[in-house]
Design the sequence.
DNA sequence: ACGCATTTGTTCGTATGTATT
DNA sequence: TAATACATACGAACAAATGCG
């Protein structure tokens, strides 16, 4: 007779919390993901096994997984199992890059790394990343190009503590999405991001790098990316040259 | 023994389609919504009644409604029923307006109607709205202001056939979101939109209206809004002055 | 003020279908 | 072919919110 009690699998779990069972299960799964019990790309136990582990019905586990799947934290594959989502999947590669070519061309942009260094985090960055002033940060500057034309100038900051061995060489050598490298090489998985967009005038240095006249209008995209537990782990500022590209957004 | 046959409620339904039952139910509900069987704000029949009507279990109806609810077409309210979504709800008002003040102020923007006239749709607009060249369209131009400062200059086109009695007077008189007026006065409900964002330089006329110098960078937002059946029913071009505001986006 | 009927929300259990290995 | 795992469908019971008499 389905008790309302806490699902007691784990020994000292506390947190009775009178939320629906499936929400409690979801929170437990989330905790396991955060703790790295299942790594990105790996499969998690079957619904049947999880139901046994948490002492609930399979349907309840299913509902918890459903929500995690719609939040893109898990991916279900019929007949195979449920997997921890990855930034490397073909289907959703560059999930966070909304820039499209006006003519619909799907050609991926080329990367050119301009700079990668460790330094003390500027105050505003430190505040967002929750670093103590003086803590180390990694700063990366890069260009994205469509053929020969530069289209995006990205500046990004990462907490130094999480990205210990990150060097320019390693970044240049990597093929595939940067966020995939972050999760496979540093165990930091970006699951959500917020962006603030504005139109700005190109400064002299930016203009030179993007091959536009100084003062040309550019789309500024300020991003803060979060990992499990809503922890900010990346601050990024992109300048997009939108002469032949646009930022595409879907409102639903 | 759950037949795979078509749920036969409607007489000549055809479309056997070997999709899951709940998807078929979802399609039937969608058709009723499109046909106006339940108007925006009204409640639809209870899950129990719908289950009887379609000759399926309550759980199957529930799953169909679940999907329509996550797509924002329906709103569930425990104890009360399930309702056709509206652009007037407090919670999700201005769902499609992503502009926020940098300082976080939530003060709603003031509207100032500049123009509202009927004319033949320009070729590009006609193509998107699927109008025959020469068909009438309504063109609206308006300004959104934060206090005294103009922030948004909107130009929008609507198919003339759907918006028969739309006049400047009626628009000025309306309080509340424009999309709410469209659905309550003209029976046209916007359910989805796509936007293309770029940075552009202000032209002379636009600069004057937005009180910025000519050539100032502005955020251009081109929107196409769709109603049921993916039918485009609005084309809009907004110019945002992003000196003290930004376009906020959430990537998940 | 109270209780009852209605409606959605949660949970369980079971059976069957479909995809993968 | 068989075993495994997710997907669909049904049914039943109780919880929680709402509204009405």
Sequence:
């Amino acid at each position: 007779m389905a008790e309302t009690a806490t699902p007691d699998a784990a020994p000292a779990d506390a947190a009775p919390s009178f939320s629906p069972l499936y929400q409690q299960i979801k929170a437990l799964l989330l905790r396991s993901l955060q703790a790295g019990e299942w790594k990105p790309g790996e499969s998690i136990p079957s619904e049947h096994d999880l139901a046994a582990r948490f002492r609930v019905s399979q349907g309840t586990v299913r509902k918890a997984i459903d929500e995690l799947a719609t939040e893109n934290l898990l991916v279900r594959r019929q007949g195979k199992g449920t997997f921890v989502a990855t930034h490397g999947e073909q289907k959703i590669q560059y999930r966070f890059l909304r820039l499209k070519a006006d003519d619909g061309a799907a050609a991926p942009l080329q990367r050119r790394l301009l700079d990668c260094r460790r330094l003390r985090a500027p105050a505003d960055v430190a505040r967002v990343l929750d670093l103590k002033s003086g803590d180390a940060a990694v700063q990366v500057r890069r260009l994205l190009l469509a053929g020969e034309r530069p289209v995006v100038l990205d500046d990004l900051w990462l907490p130094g503590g999480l990205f210990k061995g990150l060097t320019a060489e390693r970044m240049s050598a990597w093929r595939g999405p940067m966020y995939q490298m972050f999760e496979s090489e540093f165990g930091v998985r970006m699951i959500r991001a917020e962006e603030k967009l504005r139109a700005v005038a190109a400064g002299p240095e930016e203009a030179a790098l993007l091959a536009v006249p100084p003062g040309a209008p550019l789309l500024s995209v300020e991003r803060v990316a979060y990992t499990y537990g809503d922890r900010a782990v990346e601050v990024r500022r992109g300048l997009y040259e939108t002469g032949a590209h646009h930022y595409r957004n879907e409102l639903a």
Remarks:
- The domain at 21-84 of chain B is CATH 1.10.10.10 (Arc Repressor Mutant, subunit A).
- Confidence is low (pLDDT under 50) at residues 1-17 of chain B.
